[in-house]
Structure formats: C-alpha cells, structure tokens
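Example 5.3 — Transcriptional regulator, AraC family
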Amino acid sequence: MSDPLKPPAFHRYREIHYYTPGTLDQPFPYQILAAGRSRTGPERPAHTAVYQHHTFILTLSGKGRITWAGRSTDACAATVTWLDTSQKYAHSCHPDSDHWEHIWLGMSGYGLDMLFERITGGRNPVHRANVKMRGVFEDVLQHLKDTSGVKAPISALLAAHLVEILANTDEVLEEPSSSPFHLLMTAVKNELNERWDVRKMASLAACSASHFHRKFQKIQGVSPMEWLKLERINAAKYLLSATDLSIFEVGQKCGYPDPYHFSRVFSRTVGISPTGFRKMTGR
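Solution (predicted structure tokens):
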C-alpha cells in the first residue's frame, strides 16, 4: 500500500518523431524534420548536439538551462527558445528546478538563417510564447505521430505559421537604432545619390569589407549592393508616382546620373520602364 504522505515518483519520459522530406516537399519553403516531448529532472546530464536545422523549444513547465554560442540562458514556462543548432548547443533541467517539461521542433527552410538573425539579433534566443504557440507545437507533434495522409503541405503550413507567430511576437529584438548597421543604412537612404560601394559602407559600419559583406547578407538576405539597388529603385518609384520630376532628375536623385543606365536597371528590376511605371500610376 502506498504512503499517501509520500510525494509521487517523478515521471520522466521522452518521445521523438521524425520526418524525411520527399519530392512533394520541394515547393514548400519550410519543413519540420523532427519533433518530440520530454520531461526530465536536474540529475540528468545535459544533452549536447549539433543539427543541420533550427530547433524551437517550448517550455511547458519547470525550468531548463540552454547553452548556445558560448552563453547560458534560462528557459522558463511559457517561453519558446529559437536556436540555430548548426552550432553546438546543450540543454538540461535547471539545477534549481525539480523538472523541465518541453516540446521541441526541428525545422529547415529557405530564409530561416536570415529570419533568425533579425528576430534574435544574435542575442537572447528566448521569447515569450503567446497563446497560439502551444497549440501549434501540439499540432506539429500530433501531425508527425500520424502515419497517414500527405505530410508535405501540412508540415510546411505549420512551420510557416510558427515562424509567423515568432516574427510578430512582442519579444522581437530589432537592430538597435544606435548600432553601426542601423546608422549606416539610415545614412545610405538619406544620400542615395552618393557613390556608394562596399568599402565605403563598411567603413561607416566600423568593420572590414569582407566582414561587413558577410554579416549584411546574413541579416538582410541580400548583398549590400543588391540592397542599395532595391532602395534606389524604391525611391525612384516614389518620385515617379508622387512628383513631376523628369526621368533624368529622378535618376540623378536616386544615384543614376546616366538616364539610359537608370532606365535599364529600373526595367530589369521592376519589369517595366520608368516612363511606363509613371503612366501606370496615373501621373
């Protein structure tokens, strides 16, 4: 007969489900590769791993300790931790907690690296989970348990929904307004008619040209010069639709002193000439 005054034995469990993308997955931007649920105690050693995907950990109860990129952070209940687990990481129950229960998802997809940089800023990967988050994690877990049906589109939709929730959470860490990158981008937007190149931009961002190019592309998803071109074209669109400036004047203000070069770049990028775009907007 059990002693009613004795606390119940701590129940540990671990479940894992995998999914291998196939041909039907190719049109979809995101794929969930694995998911699981775990409950562990402080006496268990840390789990250390490296995966070629991103990992999302939703803490249900208790507290976990996660080490990533040389830093340790606490994962408390009702938080979700987003990790780029192509870098070595470790997680365990926090030593001050009697347990840690969580659901985790492994996801791959185009643009996740860029989105991860923009949301976490390379700093704190822990975000407050909103009311929808647990439902999405539970749906993914149940989805991978189910052996019937076509998984590709459902998996991609669930993954995209999760990314959308995280991207719009109030815990998003924007690039601080005083950072060198923010100041650089503001300066460039204010002086689009200047002769900008990677070296000039890198000097304003206080780093080498190679480091600047690599970091800029990782954060923005495009090269510095491609970003500059798109900013110039956006400004040209505005001037063409909102002012009576000539095509030549618009090109000059946007960094294209040669009107033929401006027309060629605009047409290749937008799919219509500057004159055609102006007519389309009713000017």
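Remark. The chain has ten helices and nine strands.
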